[in-house]
Amino acid sequence: MAGIMTDTIQKVQHAVMGSSGADKIVDLEKDTKNVGDKVQLTTDYGVKQSNPDDWLSVVSKDQQGPALLEDPFGRERIHRFDHERIPERVVHARGTGAFGKFKVYESAEDVTFAPVLTDTSRETPVFVRFSTVLGSRGSADTVRDVRGFAVKFYTKEGNWDIVGNDIPVFFIQDAIKFPDVIHAGKPEPHNEVPQAQTAHNNFWDFQFNHTESTHMFMWAMSDRGIPRSYRMMQGFGVNTFTLVNAKGERHFVKFIFTPELGVHSLVWDEALKLAGQDPDFHRKDLGEAIENGVFPKWKFGIQTIREADEHKFDFDILDATKIWPEDLVPTRYIGELELNRNVDEFFPQTEQVAFCTSHVVPGIGFSNDPLLQGRNFSYHDTQLSRLGVNWQELPINRPICPVMNFNRDGAMRHTITKGTVNYWPNRFEQCPPASVKESGYLEYAEKIAGIKARSKSEKFREHYSQAQLFWNSMSQVERNHITNALAFELDHCEDPVVYGRMVQRLTDIDLGLAQMVADMVGGEMPTHAGRPNHGRKAPALSQTEFMGMKPTIASRRVAILIADGYDPVAFSAAYGAVSAGLGVPLVIGPKRSKITSAGGTSSIQPHHHFEGFRSTMVDAIFIPGGEQSVRALAKNGRALHWIREAFGHLKAIGATGEAADLVHKVIGLPEITVSISGDVHESYGVVTIGTIKPENFSEAVTIAKGSAGFLENFFYAIAQHRNWDRELDGLNTQV
Ligand code: HDD
Questions:
Q1: Taking the alpha carbons of 25, 29, 30, 35 in that order, is the dihedral positive or negative?
Q2: Which positions fall inside the Catalase core domain (predicted)?
Q3: What is the DSSP letter of 42?
Q4: Alpha-carbon gap, residue 120 to 336, rounded angstroms
Q5: What SS3 state is found at 214?
Q6: Would the CB of 169 count as within 6 Å of ligand 1?
Q7: Whether the CB of 173 sits within 6 Å of ligand 1
Q8: Among 9, 158, 235, 358, which one is most buried in terms of CB atoms within 10 A?
Q9: One of 159, 165, 202, 723 is an active-site residue; which one?
Q10: Which residue's CA lies nearest to atom 37 of ligand 1?
Q11: Distance CA 654, CA 624 (A)
Q12: What angle do CA 501, 505, 508 make, to 5 degrees?
């Protein structure tokens, strides 16, 4: 009788003991094998194969006869291949993932008894999958879209999933509308166009017809819709969950992740180009950072509201189209999420990972948020069609704690459970339920009274106030970007009804915005506001709030542009310092064969050539002097385009010696260049110096503006992410 439990417990004991972020990796090891091991090629049934290249056929010296169906090896190859695909996710099909760990540094025991949020000595293994929403599995990473941010915590009490987005609100309030919003956003039914974008009639027709979407489309049109990196996005659980503490008190809660590197975005022209030039940009970016040991980290925060305060707000706290403004409900940061390991194989890990909002652990519960209630049904359901009923047995999905119950059988079941009974209760009392003290799930005894009806409570009917709050809280640059994004999207709507009505909708947010968009896309020019603007602001809604983190160049890609005859001193100083700062130096030349320095003292094989790689793929460019090199670059149209484009995309540019003149000539800035220290000059994030100084050889470059060193100032410009002044002053037109 004890056999069942003992066997299972033994299986997982190894993984559960020790509680480091590596527990899940240890758990996966038993299902992981190495192609590199000295094993010979076999069929799936283990028989070694002597010739995997020729199908068994009738052949003679001078005649190729028919292939024989009797060949079991040939048939197996084709059969297996024919069935390699599973249905892609109906939304969030395109994504990438990584392993890591989660730790709380401040116990939240005042609001929950969930050890994952109270035990500060614990490290919980996690798997995180980032995604876009609308595109197919093979679509581009950098399209304008909401990004998924799904975290699976493998806790000792079972799996807990936060299935969130990089935007804190959602398009709809009620799950019953989910098929409509997704149908409207996905490619249109008659021609399956467009791929991975919201810039089409149906999406905007839906937005007009659902006033509740107004808040979210403003977020989607903001720079949040085109993140620079998955590592530079916030993550939000969006829905309202609940926490219960040891005293049995309940709080409403929202979950938030804020990246250590700050929140940063691409610029639109860059995002468009990257979609073609490097469709895997975000996927590679995450892999590269982890590979280089620059592990992405997020602070984990909670916003909590006492149960008794549920109705104290002018919005319904269960409405997923509303944020809880920070001035009313501050975020309390209590933990840290770190990603530190790439997957070994994409399909069994990233593709087969499956999240469920309904998966919570004791101490965490749901609310009556009508979107969440529907999600709790949908996720398990979709895994059934994607992966089958035994999807939780898959290595990536199984918990690291013991799993034992009487759910049995089904397609592809592979756990073998010993014992004579498969039901509860049973005469052996096998597999008894656990009390709350033994970590059994606590159902919070909530009193519910109401009338069964298809409607929502009163406060769910207000749809514009927070859209205005968002717009009011944006910086000028952010407002420009939202205006341009709306102008782009509506330009792709051919139906005048669609763009005409949307222009009118924008008057419910801001008349000026509506007029600027109307001017660009056509439609009747609005003359008065649809409703008064309340004028309130919430600074934490602006990305600029999350840009000023500690300046760093860690994980930033810096392209070093050279040709034969480059200055080896400036080159080495910059290359060494970028590497020392954990940035990624990438040498780019006219060709990928060896490039020789001035005086022939050194040479290097570039990582890429100007045509093969583009400025869109880096964060900054550096050009060392060297008369011959700079002369060659000046004659190379693609190299000049690199400089113009990087400038247009607001990126930091550094140049020394002869290259300083070249840069200024190409971008046309000389008259506004100011000296910031000695002969170090800076203007709009373009940093130049006549000759690189000995102090710049130091590997430990302090990142500071206005200091004597060239690299200090150049790195500061990189750490700022982009130079927005160029855009505000209209200098970024050459892209
Ligand atoms: Fe969803 C996937 C996030 C509303 C139904 N959703 C999915 C993923 C994320 C989200 C990040 C990808 C998970 C992964 O990486 O595998 N979804 C959200 C957020 C929502 C939301 C933040 C609003 C708060 N979703 C939502 C609703 C429904 C669904 C209202 C249905 C009623 N979502 C699904 C799904 C998916 C999914 C169809 C597709 C693949 C999957 O679940 O595993 O069930």
A1: positive
A2: 42-432
A3: B
A4: 11
A5: helix
A6: no
A7: no
A8: 235
A9: 165
A10: 91
A11: 8
A12: 160
Backbone conformation region of residue 591, classed left if phi is above 0, alpha if psi is from -120 to 50, else beta? beta
Q: How far is the CA of 378 from the centre of ligand 1 (A)?
A: 8
Residue 194: cis peptide before it, omega within 30 degrees of 0 = yes
Question: Distance (Å, rounded) from C-alpha 370 to C-alpha 376?
Answer: 10
165 is catalytic: yes
- Count Cβ atoms within 10 A of the Cβ of residue 527 and give its class: 0-12 exposed, 13-18 middle, 19 or more buried: exposed
Contact 681, 708 (CB under 8 A): no
Write the CB contacts of 203 (distance below 8 Å, at least 6 apart in sequence). 184, 185, 489
Handedness of CA 134, 138, 143, 149 (dihedral sign): positive
pLDDT of 250: 98
pLDDT tens profile 61-109: 999 999 999 999 999 999 999 999 999 999 999 999 999 999 999 999 9
Calculate what percentage of the chain has a pLDDT beyond 70: 95
| DSSP state letters, 490-510 | HHT---HHHHHHHHHHHTTT-
Catalytic-labelled residue, pool 92, 210, 251, 681: 92
DSSP for 628-690 reads HHHHHHHT-HHHHHHHHHHHHTT-EEEEETHHHHHHHHHHT-GGG-EEEETTEEEETTEEEES
Cβ proximity of 647 and 686 under 8 Å = yes
Distance from C-alpha of 18 to C-alpha of 10, rounded to nearest angstrom: 14
What are residue 110's phi and psi, to 5 degrees? -65, -25
Token pair 């999600």 in the structure block, residue? 375
- Based on the number of CB atoms within 10 Å of its own CB, is 459 exposed (0-12), middle (13-18) or buried (19 or more)? middle
pLDDT at 220: 98
ipTM topping 0.90: yes
Tokens 């037109």 correspond to what residue?
733
pTM as predicted: 0.95
- 641, HSE (Cβ side, Cα atoms, 13 Å): 11
Angle between helices 214-221 and 476-491 in degrees, nearest 10:
100
pLDDT mean over 306-333:
97
CA distance 29 to 13: 14
- The residues, any chain, with a CB within 8 Å of residue 303's CB and separated by 6 or more, are 253, 254, 256, 324, 326, 329, 330, 331, 332
Give the domains, in start order, of the chain with CATH numbers: 2-82 (no CATH), 95-200+209-393 (2.40.180.10), 466-546 (1.20.1370.20), 557-728 (3.40.50.880)
